[in-house]
Amino acid sequence: MSSKSFKLWWNADSIGRGNVLSFLFGERDETIKAARLTIDRMKQTNTLSMTRREMRFFAKDLESGKLGVKYSYHNFYTKLIRKLLDLGFLERGVSVWDAKHQKTAIVYQLKLQTIPERPPQSGFVRQAWHVAKGWNDLIQGL
To answer: Are 106 and 95 in contact (CB under 8 A)?
Structure first.
């Protein structure tokens, strides 16, 4: 993507309205839908997480189309989960207390970004702040 097309596409208000996933994954509608379903599923728990087993079964449900989106198991892990891990929006190997089984569990967990209350003045840091703020708003449901 050239810088000119990036400047035309960039809109901080759009990112603030929850379109941060379209910024992260481009125009891949199925990937965006799968990402939104994954995030919504993880938000159902108070720890914002899923165990490896739950993640595997969730990916199988996506692959079969049970959740309204048909998305391959391979693409789920290589395109969606890997990108979120690489960008720091998702953490793997986090220990949380599982009250159901009365033990700690190792999970994938959504990560809120630690950012200042106000954006920096300009440049790349300001754009990164808007992406992080859009992600936090998506996770917190604002």
So the answer is: yes
pLDDT tens, 55-109?
A: 999 999 999 999 999 999 999 999 999 999 999 999 999 999 888 889 999 999 9
Contact partners, residue 53, CB within 8 Å, separation at least 6? none
Amino acid at site 1: M
For the CA atoms of the chain, what is the radius of gyration?
16
Q: What is the rounded distance in angstroms from the CA atom of residue 3 to the CA atom of residue 25?
A: 17
Question: Who contacts 73 (Cβ-Cβ below 8 Å, separation ≥6)?
Answer: 59, 60, 62, 63
CA distances from 40 to 6, 20, 35, 86, 99 (A): 28, 15, 9, 20, 21
Strand pairing category for 103-110 and 49-51: antiparallel
E strands within 12-102?
Answer: 49-51, 90-98
> Cα separation of 99 and 41, whole Å?
18
* Amino acid making up residue 46: N
Q: Is 47 helix (H, G, I), strand (E, B) or coil?
A: coil
